Amino acid sequence: MTLIIRDLLVNPPTWFLSFRDLTLYCNVFLKSDIVIESEDPDLYYRWIKPRGGMDFIEDFVRPGSEDGLRLDVEHNYPRSLVTDRIAPENVHRLIAMIRGCQGAA
Predict the structure, then answer these.
(1) Domain with 88 in it
(2) Angle at 35 between CA 71 and CA 43, to 5 degrees
(3) pTM for the predicted model, two decimal places
């Protein structure tokens, strides 16, 4: 399964360590290929690469070009999970929702 994370969810109010926790869990335990959906991948790459944010990310993709489960800030596509941030208080809920959608796929 491909997990597509909207670029806006890399920015605050997202906690970067929670972003890393989520991508680590989904990559290692759920065997997901994780991509970041962005119109400006260079900007995001330069920000997250030095912080170790690319360790579990496969690539960047243009919006709408990849099929999979989306983690987004609004419901733009089918199979979208909507959240306003990735943070300690919601990372476990997000993982549970992703696991549930993976089982349904």
Answers:
(1) 2-104
(2) 100
(3) 0.93
